[in-house]
Design a protein that fits this description.
Helix content: 25-40%
Radius of gyration: 17 Å
Distance between the termini: 34 Å
CATH architecture: Alpha-Beta Complex
Order of helices and strands: EHEHEEHEHHEHHHEEEEEE
Largest sheet: 6 strands, mixed
Strand content: 15-25%
CATH class: Alpha Beta
Amino acid sequence: MSRGYLIYAIDELYISMANALKKSIEHHTNDSVTIISNNFLYEDITKKSEWHTNTFTSNLLNMWQIYWMSPYDETIVLDADMLFLNDYSYWWDYLSKFDMLFPNTIINYKQEIINHNQYDKILTEHNTRPAYEKMFYFKQGQFAQEFFTMLEQILKNYRFISAKIFPNTRPLTLRASHIFPTCIKMLGIEDVVYDKNDIFKYIDMKLTGLNTKINSPIWDKDLNYWGDYKEFYIENFKQYYPLHYRNAEIYTL
């Protein structure tokens, strides 16, 4: 059974972040890491889509191909703007019991649980729970293949599908935080894809979940931080879990 991390990063900035993440993983573990940046196996629908001309998130359109592009039997998918701060190899034996798994909860830098309703207003308004997709696991097999096949259809028909799933406030941009919960909801698999034991989780620096007053659009302008992927602190809180730092320039450390 091969196991490894897959990082999806398209443009130059995210490729730089992905390389920093890869370096942090390799510092803490001997696990394999693959970065996907282009050369998709199947049709590249990015430039054909209406999303290509009006949103920077159009690079998500090929994310459904992750299943077929992963070289591993078991894969942990990571957002590029993350850092590993410890050895999490103990996750693998636990994750192997599942076909696919998303974190059930995420935490902020103070190790407080971020509530679902802090994460996304559109999801909350439509009684749809988030899929914390910045880090998730899947195993090669029918379950995951059906998931990514459905994801392909959602991405290719997002305008129509989002109007059905989010009728009150339709998303104006294409976001992973919306397409993954949509896929889970349409497949009816909410009961089996979340880690109810809260072993598999990460730190998210989304401003609405920090429970701290932030005046700038980027948290690193208001919060003190120091260290690197070997040891990292935010406001005297040592960070132990993978850190999803978002648009802060942590990757340059």
